[in-house]
Known about the structure:
Layout: H1 8-16, E1 22-26, H2 38-55, E2 63-67, H3 73-90, H4 101-113, H5 115-126, H6 133-140, H7 143-166, H8 173-180, H9 184-196, E3 200-203, E4 208-211
Parallel strand pairs: 1-2
Antiparallel strand pairs: 3-4
Helix pairs in contact: 1-4, 2-6, 4-7, 5-7, 7-9, 8-9
Amino acid sequence: MCTGRVDIAFVLRAFTNGSDGVFVGGCWLGECHYVTQGNYDALFNMHFTKKLLEQVGINPDRLRLEWIAASEGNRYAEVMNDFGKQLKGFGPLGKGEGLDERIMKLKLEAVTKLIPYAKLVERERLRVRFKTEQEYLDYFASDDFNRLFKELLTDKLAISQIMLLLGEKAFSARDISESLGLAASEVSRHLSMSSRLGLVRFDEDLKLYALA
């Protein structure tokens, strides 16, 4: 299977099912077995997925992409041993990030629900094709990419988490902020907007927010 076929949803499903890390191995750039050069797509997809994971507080280095030819058995063993040691250093998924299991799964669900929109944004506004791996690294670290990512996805990821949390029960704005690790001002802004849209309601007596 070409690495270009590794969907964001596959990675998130593995983490949701409790994997502490996800490894993707593909052909070296310029040595793709298919005319589509799918490993360039994989390189973009993995960087993009790392950004999504980082946005919800999950260590992006739990996802690793490496180029390994079929003849490089020794390199494969070395990379996997190194990744295994790295994951042990991170600790179990969620605990290593200081998240309890319920919140960690909620955050992954929030990203998963946003996948169709994220793919559309990625394809229409963010997708690029470079010749070298360094160019991809520079692009994802650039101010232009981070500005677009924030503009198009950051707020929607936060709202997705808030809506899922309120689906459990009513919460105060402070409890939402502390549970999700979001800034109090950010939570207040999203709750205010969601209230105007009729998505959430505020109980004046209990001082709690709930789904409308």
